[in-house]
Amino acid sequence: MAAAAAIGLLVRVSDGIGERMKTGAGAGRTLGLTLLMSACVAVAACGGPVASRPGPGTTGAARAAGSGSAGGPTAGPADAGPGVSTSGVSSAVVLDGPSVPTPAHPFARYLLTGARSGVRAEVLVRLPAAYFDPAQATRRLPVIETFHGMPGHAPQWLGRLRLGELLDRQAAARRTAPAIIVSPDMNYPDQADSECMNSGRAALETWATQDVPEWVARTFRARTDRDGWATIGLSAGGWCAAMAVMLHPDRFRAAIVLSGYFRPQLSAGSPAVGEAALRRYDLVALARRSPPQVGVWLLTSPHDAASYPTSVAVSRAPGPLAVTAQVLPGQDHSWVAWARAEPVALDWLARTAPGFAP
């Protein structure tokens, strides 16, 4: 089964059972994720085909990744200004796909142990065709870090929403730069509704905003300046995308937030978080009090009770926070709305973050 088709299959299994963000349906949530994980094991396709050539000096299916740069040399001028450090010592092993992605197998799935957070979870990586172009062998590419919904799984963006294929078309039309897609799985620990936060159970924010970017910048030919890093998320993942950028403006330049929200929405299964932490995670208050110099593109609807109130509040924030809001009067929390918004949001990203300009 082709990698993209396999990922699409897994996402459809998950989506059919429940992208029911914050509406209860706990049994549906658990069943959807269980079936998705079972499908991953059965067809070994969450990140690409398992039957692939091992890299030099590797033995077995789990191959070390992260001690060098994949896919070619990293020579060239260093990126200036604040951004992603490459000094971290997080380590990863390849679960599915080639040890170094290739044009025929651009996907790979890794198990990443965060040096800062201690979190050990999966990350999907997709490299664009430009990454393998000999004429661009020293070019560092921008990175989009994706965040899935809850319930959901990392392949949502590469499967049902086909972000990789869309980015390829945008790049071919010179509407945006070719970009690396990095999709961390935020269902940690134990499929908990963690809201991507640091808590007593796991430092998910640290893993997603420090460990993952630092490993990517060290392992792949990725840009390290903040102008070359953005996030995109849907539903609960929209919150994660906004949080990552607004709390870490030194690392990220822009966020695309599809039907997300700007305060954590805790459920019965969420880890306990103290009052001080919850105040820090209140992005509405941050936008009013000390707006960061980043860009946010958001999609919301008056019919979306989870997204609309905080999205409207953030859209009214003063500069230097720059918010572009698309309000859909007749559409709510749906895959149709998210798919239609993707190309518009990516055009905005190319205008907003210099690293994504064609």
Overview of this protein structure:
With 358 residues, the protein is α/β, with parallel strands linked by helices. Helices cover 31% and strands 16% of the residues. The radius of gyration is 19 Å and the shape is globular. The longest helix has 18 residues, at 26-43.
Radius of gyration: 19 Å
The DSSP helix count reads: 9
The biggest sheet, with number of strands, parallel, antiparallel or mixed sense and barrel status, is: 10 strands, mixed
Gross geometry: globular
Separation, N- and C-terminal Cα atoms: 32 Å
- Can you count the beta strands? 10
Uncertain stretches:
1-63, 71-80
On the 0 to 100 scale, the average pLDDT is 80
Read across the widest sheet, the strand sequence of neighbours is: 1-2-3-4-6-5-7-8-9-10
Structural class comes to alpha/beta
Give the ordered list of helices and strands. HHEEEEEHEHEHEHHEHEH
Beta-strand share of residues: 15-25%
Give a topology summary.
Elements: H1 3-18, H2 26-43, E1 63-65, E2 91-96, E3 107-113, E4 120-126, E5 143-147, H3 163-172, E6 180-184, H4 204-219, E7 229-234, H5 236-247, E8 254-258, H6 275-280, H7 283-289, E9 295-300, H8 308-315, E10 322-327, H9 335-352
Helix pairs in contact: 1-2, 3-9, 7-8
